[in-house]
Design a protein that fits this description.
Layout lengths: L2 H7 L13 H11 L11 E7 H12 L2 H6 L3 H5 L3 E7 L2 H6 L37 H19 L3 E5 L5 H8 L8 E9 L18 H4 L6
Antiparallel strand pairs: 1-2, 2-4, 3-4
Helix pairs in contact: 1-7, 2-7, 3-8
């Protein structure tokens, strides 16, 4: 599929058939996700792939409550998704990467305590909280966008679910290493659309025109 056609057709699908995703297609999508841009070539993002009800139920049990699972009109369609891709990111590899000599002039924090005097100049913060832009979240977003476009190209549906609860329980169930401080960026549901989607009310919101969002030469 042409790239621009994939961009035009990309939309969030929230109701899935139970049909499994072809393993070769899934592998191709994940390999593409790992080719997404990565600040400093740090590659500080990781994915957990959950396939089939026995595995995907771990996600639903940890991140949703029984009342939602039994009463929400969207719950059945979402929970039928045969694949859930969990996008994880860790700040630590980026903090370490941008403290290296070739990134010495890239940011805000003093390098005074980083070692030899032959490595002068400022670096990005040695504390992740000091970073004006968290590169690890940007890298996670690049990977997720790649997955969404690849899903369209493969004739699949996908949607993003933000994380609002249960991250610790989910990490424990999945064996996510605590020492590396991985955080869940989002979940991507992947599968074949069943045609019974519930359109989001957000689609009815007016959007600013192109002229309000694209500025040439100055704002």
């Amino acid at each position: 599929m042409d790239l621009h056609e994939a961009i035009r057709h990309r939309a969030m699908v929230r109701s899935f058939a139970i049909d499994p995703v072809d393993p070769v297609v899934l592998q191709t999508i994940m390999q593409a996700a790992l080719r997404a841009p990565s600040a400093g070539n740090t590659a500080g993002t990781s994915w957990v792939i959950l396939e089939g009800p026995a595995e995907t139920s771990l996600y639903w049990q940890a991140t949703t409550d029984e009342a939602w699972r039994t009463t929400s009109a969207r719950s059945p369609g979402l929970r039928r998704a045969p694949v859930i891709l969990l996008a994880y990111a860790s700040a630590a590899p980026y903090v370490a990467r941008y403290a290296e000599p070739d990134k010495a002039g890239s940011g805000i924090a003093s390098r005074a305590d980083l070692g030899p005097p032959e490595v002068p100049g400022p670096a990005l913060g040695l504390d992740a909280a000091e970073w004006p832009v968290p590169y690890w979240l940007g890298d996670a977003a690049f990977g997720v966008m790649t997955v969404l476009l690849c899903a369209v190209d493969a004739g699949l549906g996908a949607c993003i679910l933000g994380n609002f609860r249960g991250e610790e329980a989910l990490a424990s169930a999945l064996g996510v290493p605590e020492a590396e401080a991985w955080s869940l960026f989002c979940a991507v549901l992947l599968g074949h659309p069943d045609g019974n989607d519930h359109p989001s009310p957000s689609l009815d919101r007016p959007r600013p025109g192109h002229e309000d969002r694209i500025h040439r030469s100055s704002w």
